[in-house]
Amino acid sequence: MATARTLFEKIWDSHLVDQQPDATALIYIDRHLVHEVTSPQAFEGLRNAGRKVRRPDATLAVPDHNVPTSDRSKGIADETSRIQVETLEKNCREFGVQLFGMNDVRQGIVHVIGPEQGFTLPGTTIVCGDSHTSTHGAFGALAFGIGTSEVEHVLATQTLLQKRPKTMRINVVGDLPVGCTAKDVILAIIGQIGTAGGTGYVVEYAGDVIRGLSMEGRMTICNMSIEAGARAGLIAPDEKTFAYLKGRPMAPKGAAWEAAVSYWKTLPSDEGATYDKEVVLDAAEIEPQVTWGTSPQDVVGVTGRVPDPKAVKDAERRASIERSLQYMGLEPNTPIEEVRIDKVFIGSCTNGRIEDLRVIAGLVKGKKVAQSVEAMIVPGSGLVKHQAEEEGLDVVFKEAGFDWREAGCSMCLGMNPDQLKPGERCASTSNRNFEGRQGKGGRTHLVSPAMAAAAALTGRLADVRKLA
Amino acid sequence: MQAFTTLTGVAAPLPMINVDTDKIIPAKWLKTIKRTGLGVALFESMRYNEDGSEKPDFVLNKEPYRNAEILIAGDNFGCGSSREHAPWALLDFGIRCVIAPSFADIFYNNCFKNGILPIVLPQDEIDALMREAEQAQNPTFTIDLEKKEIVRPTGNAPIHFELDPHSRKCLLEGLDDIGQTLERAAAIGTFEGGQRRDQPWLYREA
Ligand code: SF4
User: Fold this and answer.
1) Does the residue B85 lie in any domain?
2) B155 is in which domain, residue-wise?
3) Which residues in A lie closer than 8 A to residue B80 (C-beta atoms)?
4) What is the pTM of this model?
5) Which EC number(s) does the record attach to this protein (chain B) (predicted)?
6) Distance (Å, rounded) from C-alpha A421 to C-alpha A423?
7) Mutation test of the interface with chain A: which of B55, B75, B79, choosing the one with the most A Cβ atoms within 10 A?
8) Ligand 1 pocket, residue A132 CB under 6 Å
């Protein structure tokens, strides 16, 4: 019998073009997503060298980081943002790459539209000049972020030079308590293994809890793999995966679909396959998670307290906590549930999908956003927005006092006008709480969509389980 | 890309862990369509006050570190986004070598594409170098990539570092990855032929 292989090994092996004696591998890239921020210099490089895009049919572009999420009829006000988006449009025309422009209903965050269109498929290699490309691993694809030089390399050659990463399996076992979601699971994992815990690894998420998640939940998990240092996260494809993809515009059809599904069914890790590292997390011990600091690993259960640096022995870690608390304007030992917030941001490639919006609508229906809070909802794509409006969710949100906006990255990183002001405190469904991430001096608490809804209604980092 | 053989320059100590790419270069600077000009914004929030004046305590605002070409930092340097603007900003400032106990993967790869050498060393050696960079009269170090050595200002024995042979060769020769890969176009074509046969659904014909 052939040796047992992991899902990662099967994908890796089937994409090896060439292996060099010095251990670098040339691997083939099946799918390349492109956005406006990390591509201009890559296209310029191609142009300067007189090179073409090797596989325009394997490349899909969309502007997302810079686009305004308010009225778009007047275009983009900020000149540098406008130039960057126009540069993407121009490059796509010149190199024959398909683009979903700013006013196309299919426009959205690059990691939302890939799966939505069926461009993301199991067993493929997927890259994008964006670290959250790990999202697509939810479909059993080897998907990871690359820099601009590598974007250029993929455009020109459809391949990448890579060293084979190590493998880690994270088994999430037990029963996920009521009120806890995929976001809480991944935050708890990052809290356990740390922001560098996954560095050098591809992580496969397994176990009953992962199997039980919807595709949206699985994307949330894989999305934040990079926050644990892992470039890629993987979840084995199953019937849920196939059901999600069936009928999507760019997914295979008819006989090709049948052939694809039977291939995809061979992908899950073989019985007895081994990993370089194994981690087990008991879901029963998870409670809704909230970050208190400026790194995603600075996380605690909602019933917990802000940590006390005095209790930390390691000097570097203590200094880093002190610095975080000062930036975040938090006193040691404050109960998390007593922390008041100014803003709520719901959206991003972590939690800007239809399922997230349905959860929030269920919680806020007939209620009101707290007086002191400004809360915005930014759907992950134009199609998510459309779907939500079909279901009447927008009405629920607006009646509750939420600001309902156009699709894009928005306040996840504040490259467009959606930004926190210095000192403002935000409960956010995004993925990074770095200093200045959502606007200079802004203070971010990462939470699940349900917890963000609870924060919006109460004006503080409230426990969603206690919501009346 | 500029080749990297030896580098002699001032090393700035930045004893912080988890220096993320938003700290190295904040998002508002990512709107550029060029690779150059980002040096002024390197470490913006740590380097400047609200009004744009310099924060005197930040290491790169102090002599002789203003002219640093080497940076010594804590664990997990460059975590966060894939933005190559981070190495571009370092390079534009004049930094061509970063020494740390560990780096985030994407940042680490991005360095090589821009002729920046990231060196990984054990924590105790980092601590020793950090002290020398802080205390030496003239904190000038020499990085010798040929010998894989860091020559120290104090006259203490040079520190040896490891680097995989492929990355080292590319840096030493200033090689362009794309040009090299295109020499393997035949192998890529063969791969595509096989894949098109086995998984035709991956090829969207126009
Ligand atoms: S939503 Fe945020 S994390 Fe996702 S791609 Fe946009 S900026 Fe990056």
Assistant:
1) yes
2) 6-175
3) 131, 432, 434
4) 0.96
5) 4.2.1.33
6) 6
7) B79
8) yes
